[in-house]
Amino acid sequence: MIIVLAVVMGFLSSLSSLFGMSRKDVNIVVVGLDNSGKTTVLNQLKPPETRSQQIVPTVGHVVTNFTTQNLSFHAFDMAGQMKYRSTWESYFHTSQGVIFVLDSSDRVRIELLKDELWMVLDHKDVHARGVSM
């Protein structure tokens, strides 16, 4: 998890530099298989005083708004259960970034994880627009 958070914090710094020093609104989509830690990663990106103390599985999606490093984030935390994965793509066209969270200890589902990651990377609204990931 520490590695993922370091990558995400670098992602935030890159976005902040890309958009300049003035405050900007940024839409991000947080995806990954169920139980991979998406909500936990998103919770850690929020300022400490706004972090949730209890994390519950996401059903459908949850919109989380927070501000950090001169960026005002509108994060779409998407459920990772199979029945919800087809809804991910409807949020890509309005996003400036996608955070794909994976649980590297879930070796049983590594092939499924690989397939879902490629689906996101190859999606026209991610690939053609060069959405940050």
From TrEMBL:
Q: Which N-terminal residues, if any, form the signal peptide?
A: 1-17
Binding of GTP: at which residues? G32, L33, D34, N35, S36, G37, K38, T39, G80
Q: Name one GO molecular function term.
A: GTPase activity
- Which UniProt keywords are given for this protein, alphabetically ordered? GTP-binding, Magnesium, Metal-binding, Nucleotide-binding, Signal
> Superkingdom, according to UniProt?
Eukaryota
Residue sites binding Mg(2+) per the record: T39, T58
* Entry's family note: Belongs to the small GTPase superfamily. Arf family.
Mind telling me which PANTHER family this protein's record contains? ADP RIBOSYLATION FACTOR-RELATED (PTHR11711)
Task: Please give the name of this protein.
Answer: ADP-ribosylation factor-like protein 6
- Organism, as annotated: Caenorhabditis japonica
Species lineage, top-down? Eukaryota, Metazoa, Ecdysozoa, Nematoda, Chromadorea
